[in-house]
Design a protein that fits this description.
Alpha-Beta Plaits, alpha+beta, Arc Repressor Mutant, subunit A
């Protein structure tokens, strides 16, 4: 990956629907050359996909929270992934070091919906000891396309 590829990735993070010609004018390449580079970035796994970034407010998702999950005993990351996938309010999830075993980012319609989602987390995982929830008051930085590393 060279400087042109990095610039293309930056530009795609700003506008994933930018035409190849527009991208090309920014990096000094023709549209077909930009397409070939982007195709290589996709094939090489640098770009894992293209998606819409949704503003939660117009969708009626007014509550956002981060939840630390503490569980009893052991559960594999694969088991957690499978359980967390069944809770649609979970936007992202990760196992973490420290006192919590996992951390979740949830988006819900309201506090009642958040409460229902937290109960579903407890049911789906099965051996949750407790959760610690922090409701977001205001989002200070939200960078689209944050690097998510695939599990190995």
């Amino acid at each position: 990956m060279d400087a042109v590829d990095r610039r293309l990735v930056d530009l795609l993070l700003e506008d994933g629907r930018a035409p190849y010609a527009t991208l090309g004018s920014e990096v000094g390449l023709s549209a077909p050359a930009v397409k070939r580079r982007i195709d290589r970035l996709v094939e090489g796994g640098v770009i894992r996909g293209f998606t819409a970034v949704i503003d939660p407010d117009p969708m009626g998702w007014s509550v956002e929270a981060y939840v630390e999950v503490h569980y009893r005993g052991n559960i594999s990351p694969e088991g957690l992934r499978e359980a967390f996938t069944r809770v649609p309010e979970i936007h992202s999830a990760a196992t973490v070091s420290g006192q919590a075993d996992a951390i979740l980012h949830l988006v819900a319609r309201d506090v009642r919906d958040l409460e229902r989602a937290l109960e579903q987390v407890r049911v789906e995982v099965g051996n949750v000891d407790h959760t610690d929830t922090a409701i977001v008051l205001s989002r200070l930085i939200a960078r689209p396309g944050v690097l998510e590393r695939p599990s190995t």
